[in-house]
């Protein structure tokens, strides 16, 4: 993969990084199969150049970007973030990217835009055709979450362009939410008025809420979320509220009952 | 029917074959080739092998009946005990490497997470079956009671499939496959039982000696 460099960010954690092999070999990218090793085996088939990202919907200047346009929007930063999967494991990943806000500001969201919908690439010729989820994969954020400085559009990790299995060529990373909120291989970003439908919420609404903030106090019906296993470690560690980003993001949810709006 | 010696060597071979999955997991753990999340691999694979051995155990009777190879029955106890051994390893791995004996968390899992409740129930129900899998217990209980007890295996297999089904997030292919196999294995038994019932009903009762001739009432 091609080299990418990013300047260090004050938002990075100093925790030890998860091994590159695990970051690029243990993935949930169901379009390429539901086994953790499937994406690394099958995602190479995906063509990531040329790539078009449409940013549309309730915006004054909706437009399409190719990858080089996207790279010009803002300087790349290295963001070392914790990633917490809803299944109870976690990693520390050195992403390369920049705030999603840089993209959204480029298209000038209208006042009526309240939410942002993300649509992932779906090509039945190379991806699962079985309706494991309602393809294409869709995710969503509230506009203020999408504009938060911790929310990034990532184009690389570990100093190189994103490997396909990690959601090349560009993906969302929202470090205080469960991993599935961070949509991979995004082809469209839509500014919308109403809360968008999201893939996992459609599949099992009682299990995966729209917000899906990391929350050790709200158990998933199948997994306690109180603790997690950091990949590479044997013993579990306690899960932190908002995945340890409470100081930066708790204000977004003031006055909300996070057990109900999970 | 193979000779007693032949059956002994078949059993010895089967014993070793059944150990292979466990040996592979143990060696993989040692060599760190179980992937990025080895604890998950160990827990999951041991559980899946427990389910496979359970289904294999349930295959013996239909296979024997369809093939006429009645000596297959002599392998059933070993398969059943392997199902129990893998289930015990699965449960122990959960207690140890997954939960590190955090009894509070384990209790909450049991009470709040249905897939864990049914898995635990399946394991607990296996205990008396494993404990009575010997000639002494059969003698002690008597054949009929022993058999009645061991019919619990049908319920256990259903619980085990549910345990897997409810664990899976979205891709139900694998649990569906096991459910289909179990449905065939149980369906065959139900079908044969029904056939047997019908056969018994259709046999005329032995003629009784009648003291008076029967007066037939003819329809007009």
Structure, briefly:
The complex is a heterodimer of chains A (262) and B (220). Chain A has 262 residues and is of the alpha+beta class. Chain A contains 7 helices and 13 strands.
Kindly provide the radius of gyration of chain A, computed on alpha-carbon positions and rounded to a whole number of angstroms: 17 Å
**What is the first-to-last residue Cα distance of chain A?**
37 Å
- The H/E string of chain A reads EHHEEHEEHEEHEEEEHEEH
Largest sheet of chain A: 8 strands, mixed
Strand content of chain A: 25-35%
Structural class of chain A: alpha+beta
Q: Which of globular, elongated, flat, extended, rod-shaped describes the shape of chain A?
A: globular
Task: Work out the helix count of chain A.
Answer: 7
First-residue to last-residue Cα separation of chain B: 61 Å
Integer average pLDDT of chain B: 93
Quick check: average pLDDT of chain A?
Answer: 96
Largest sheet of chain B: none
- Taken as a percent bin, the fraction of beta residues of chain B is under 5%
Global shape of chain B: globular
> What is the helical fraction of chain A, as a range of percent?
10-25%
Order of helices and strands of chain B: HHHHHHHHH
Q: Return the domain count of chain B.
A: 1
* Count of strand segments of chain A: 13
Describe this entry's structure for a reader:
Chain B: Its cofactor is FMN; heme b. Chain B: This is Protein-methionine-sulfoxide reductase heme-binding subunit MsrQ. Chain B: One of its GO terms (biological process) is protein repair. Chain B: Heterodimer of a catalytic subunit (MsrP) and a heme-binding subunit (MsrQ). Chain B: Keywords: Cell membrane, Electron transport, Flavoprotein, FMN, Heme, Iron, Membrane, Metal-binding, Transmembrane, Transmembrane helix, Transport. The complex is a heterodimer of chains A (262) and B (220). Chain A has 262 residues and is an alpha+beta fold. In chain A, 13% of the residues lie in helices and 25% in strands. Chain A contains seven helices and 13 strands. In chain A, strands 1, 4, 5, 8, 9, 10, 12 and 13 form an eight-stranded mixed β-sheet that branches. Chain A has a five-stranded mixed β-sheet with strand order 3-2-11-6-7. In chain A, a hairpin with a 4-residue loop joins strand 4 (77-84) and strand 5. The longest helix of chain A is centred in the middle third of the chain and has 7 residues, at 101-107. Chain A is globular, with a radius of gyration of 17 Å. The mean pLDDT of chain A is 96. Chain B is mainly α. Chain B has one domain (9-193). In chain B, helix 1 (4-31) runs antiparallel to helix 2 (38-67), helix 2 runs antiparallel to helix 8 and helix 8 runs antiparallel to helix 9. Chain B starts with a helix and ends in an 18-residue tail after the last helix. The relative contact order of chain B is 0.08. The interface between A and B is medium-sized, with 29 and 20 residues.
